[in-house]
């Protein structure tokens, strides 16, 4: 077991938790040392995994999943600790490691109870990494819940504003989504085996068996897509997201919006579409309507906000809606764009929330009406915010442009009036995004100084610069060199597309 590299993505955060527990809240140097060492190891493992994965593919290994391992966990129900990754999983692991690394430095001065904060932060990271490496549905669901549970305390204790209300609202709505998801997973399990065969939780075995009756697929597709869609902020189940983002501490907002919401999109195609392709083919139109509303509604809502975190939170509703919208197009090009959008939005929104936290820590306000002229006061943070904004509105050379163009091209491949009307509507979100991004940049960064006390504020410290530079470099890397990501994920959609075509 311990010889499998994937298992260490779960073990390292657990070791970090043990190291933090030995430090105590008074030993800030020890806490920082544990977090820096652990997050650096996770990032190094993720980079090594990407390089090795590309090497294996180049050498001719076309297996559906690589680095596979399976160990019996509960034999009576055939539950295994089964792990494996394809190109999509590898990129999600890399995204998670980057944001954990950046979030560590963004929380360099976290107070109070820093040890407890990072302990829950590591538990959240454990759930995220475990989810992306799992190919057993039960194990995946377990890690999914492990990732959700710490959010209540991280927001309720270390958050700001109406933190108790937001933490409770987030937890209850996501638990409601989990109830739908559990019903869907149990239904898939009970229909997973051919006649006379053994029931299984293994995603690959269920797909190969193709034993789920078409009459059940519609219902199971709805349960699983809604269950994951709640976490993906799909309309009308998105209302937990803006409040949760606005009240969460900086690193939690980064990991929450940057990675945790991606569990929703990842689960929708890995479980809902892959295992219930006939249901997806018949009912995708319903969710295209809902996700199309998410894209446009989220962008319009961001236009009328004055709180920086709420602006970015509603922007996340729009961009995550774009991910689900792309996945529901059920073709390789659009799905590839959806994965690029997951990566782009994860890095972009993490950068936004990191910068908002740094600005708030200095000005003690997030209201754009009370701020202005930050380019004069703190030029480094001002430039970084402009870069994040340009990435969000899809400036060529940044990751947002590559992702959104791929989605729109792929979505337009569906040559019927229904799909193309919704593609045109979703395309309009680009203009709306430009409105609120340019409004904020003009008011916050380039406008006149609103408060004379802000003139004495300092610019970013070294740890804040390290956090932001890491994220900006990744955004530019995707924007200028997207082909290496396509190389990684190229073969990952083949089984899903094959299952959809067979259903059609």
Q: Would you give an account of this structure?
A:
The protein has about 500 residues and is mainly alpha-helical. It has 21 helices and 2 strands. Helix 1 (about 10-25) runs antiparallel to helix 2, helix 3 (about 85-105) runs antiparallel to helix 4 and helix 11 crosses helix 21. The protein is globular, with a radius of gyration of 22 Å. The mean pLDDT is about 85.
| Number of DSSP-assigned strands | 2
Integer average pLDDT: 86
Amount of helix? over 70%
Classify the beta-strand content into a percent band. under 5%
Give the overall shape, derived from the CA principal axes: globular
SS field, number of helical segments: 21
Oligomer: single chain
Structural class designation: mainly alpha
Blueprint of the fold:
Layout: H1 8-23, H2 28-58, E1 66-74, E2 79-85, H3 87-106, H4 114-133, H5 137-158, H6 163-190, H7 203-209, H8 214-231, H9 240-247, H10 250-260, H11 262-275, H12 277-303, H13 308-327, H14 332-363, H15 374-377, H16 379-392, H17 399-411, H18 417-445, H19 462-480, H20 483-489, H21 494-503
Antiparallel strand pairs: 1-2
Helix pairs in contact: 1-2, 1-4, 2-3, 3-4, 3-10, 3-14, 3-19, 3-20, 4-5, 5-6, 6-8, 6-9, 8-11, 8-12, 9-13, 10-14, 11-12, 11-13, 11-21, 12-13, 12-18, 12-21, 13-14, 13-18, 14-16, 14-17, 14-19, 16-18, 16-19, 17-19
């Amino acid at each position: 077991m311990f010889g499998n590299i994937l298992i260490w993505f779960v073990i390292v955060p657990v070791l970090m938790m043990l190291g933090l527990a030995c430090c105590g809240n008074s030993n800030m140097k020890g806490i920082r040392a544990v977090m820096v060492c652990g997050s650096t190891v996770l990032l190094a493992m993720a980079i090594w995994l990407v390089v090795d994965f590309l090497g294996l593919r180049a050498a001719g290994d076309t297996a559906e999943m690589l680095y596979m391992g399976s160990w019996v966990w509960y034999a009576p129900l055939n539950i295994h600790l089964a792990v494996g990754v394809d190109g999509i999983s590898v990129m999600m692991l890399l995204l998670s490691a980057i944001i954990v690394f950046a979030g560590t430095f963004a929380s360099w001065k976290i107070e109070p109870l820093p040890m407890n904060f990072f302990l829950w932060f590591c538990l959240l990271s454990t759930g995220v990494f475990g989810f992306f490496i799992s190919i057993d549905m039960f194990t995946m669901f377990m890690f999914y819940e492990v990732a959700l549970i710490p959010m209540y305390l991280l927001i309720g204790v270390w958050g700001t504003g109406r933190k108790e209300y937001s933490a409770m609202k987030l937890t209850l709505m996501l638990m409601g989504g989990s109830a739908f998801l559990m019903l869907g997973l149990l239904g898939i399990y009970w229909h997973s085996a051919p006649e006379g065969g053994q029931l299984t939780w293994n995603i690959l075995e269920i797909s190969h068996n193709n034993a789920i009756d078409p009459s059940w697929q519609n219902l199971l597709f709805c349960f699983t897509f809604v269950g994951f869609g709640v976490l993906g902020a799909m309309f009308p189940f998105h209302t937990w997201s803006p409040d949760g983002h606005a009240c969460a501490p900086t690193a939690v907002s980064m990991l929450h919006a940057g990675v945790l919401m991606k569990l929703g999109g990842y689960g929708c195609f890995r479980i809902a579409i892959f295992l219930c392709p006939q249901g997806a083919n018949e009912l995708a139109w319903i969710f295209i309507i809902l996700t199309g509303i998410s894209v446009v509604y989220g962008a319009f809502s961001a236009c009328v906000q004055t709180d920086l975190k709420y602006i970015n939170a509603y922007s996340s509703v729009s961009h995550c809606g774009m991910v689900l919208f792309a996945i529901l197009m059920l073709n390789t090009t659009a799905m590839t764009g959806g994965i690029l959008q997951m990566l782009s939005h994860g890095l972009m929104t993490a950068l936004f929330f990191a910068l908002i936290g740094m600005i708030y820590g200095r000005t003690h306000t997030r209201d754009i009406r009370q701020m202005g002229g930050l380019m004069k006061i703190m030029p480094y943070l001002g430039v970084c915010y402009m870069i994040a904004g340009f990435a969000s509105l899809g400036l060529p050379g940044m990751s947002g442009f590559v992702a959104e163009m791929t989605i729109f091209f792929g979505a337009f491949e569906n040559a019927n009036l229904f799909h193309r009307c919704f593609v045109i509507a979703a395309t309009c979100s680009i203009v709306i995004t430009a409105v609120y991004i340019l409004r904020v940049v003009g008011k916050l960064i380039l406008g006149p100084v609103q408060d004379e006390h802000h003139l004495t504020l300092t610019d970013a410290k070294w740890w804040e610069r390290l956090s932001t530079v890491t994220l900006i470099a990744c955004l530019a890397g995707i924007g200028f060199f997207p082909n290496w990501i396509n190389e990684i994920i190229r073969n990952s959609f083949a089984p899903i597309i094959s299952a959809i075509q067979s259903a059609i």
